[in-house]
Structure formats: C-alpha cells, structure tokens
Amino acid sequence: MSTTSTRRPHVEELHNAHWRRSSYSGGANDCVEIADLGAYAAVRDSKALDLSPVILSRSALGNLLDHYTDGEACIG
C-alpha cells in the first residue's frame, strides 16, 4: 500500500524541493527545472525563480512529455 499523499503541495514543500535541471540546458541557465513532489511534479523556469512554478499531476506531466516526444507539438 502506498502512503504517497495526493494533496497539492504546500509552498514550503516547493521551497525545500530538490530541483533538477534539464540535461539540455548547456549550463547557460536557459532551462526548465523539475521537482518530484510525490503525486505531483513542479516545473519552473531557471531564469524566473521568483515566479510560481507550474504544478502538474504525474499523469498530466507524463501526457505532456509524451506529446512533445512523439513529435505532435509544433512550437512557433
């Protein structure tokens, strides 16, 4: 039985989260960072840390990543 909470994360959890930077960033600080928050994930822009991160359920994040890795999305 899993004890992972399904409630949305609190502000202090975001502040103390372990943020990981995209491997595609190239060290120029132009990247996306993500934090695993159990049932949720937080996504933020490394250049705008004063802005609130986007909070997504794990399944929503998976769907978003699948959409982009399948080549369905068009940016521009």
Describe how the helices and strands are arranged.
Blueprint: H1 11-15, E1 19-21, E2 32-37, E3 40-45, E4 54-57, H2 58-69
Antiparallel strand pairs: 1-2, 2-3, 3-4
What would you note in describing this structure?
The protein has 76 residues and is an alpha+beta fold. The chain has one domain. It is built from two helices and four strands, in the order αββββα. Strands 1-2-3-4 form a four-stranded antiparallel β-sheet. A hairpin with a 2-residue loop joins strand 2 and strand 3. The mean pLDDT is 77. It holds the Pfam family DUF397. InterPro entries: DUF397. This is DUF397 domain-containing protein.
The portion of residues assigned to helices is 10-25%
CA-atom Rg in angstroms: 14 Å
User: How many beta strands in the DSSP annotation?
Assistant: 4
- What is the count of DSSP helices, taking H or I runs of 4+ residues? 2
Q: Outline, from the CA principal axes?
A: flat
Low-confidence stretches: none
Gap between N and C termini: 44 Å
Largest sheet: 4 strands, antiparallel
Subunit arrangement of the protein: single chain
How confident is the prediction overall: mean pLDDT?
77
Strand fraction equals 25-35%
Whole-number tally of structural domains: 1
Structural class: alpha+beta
Biggest sheet strand order reads 1-2-3-4
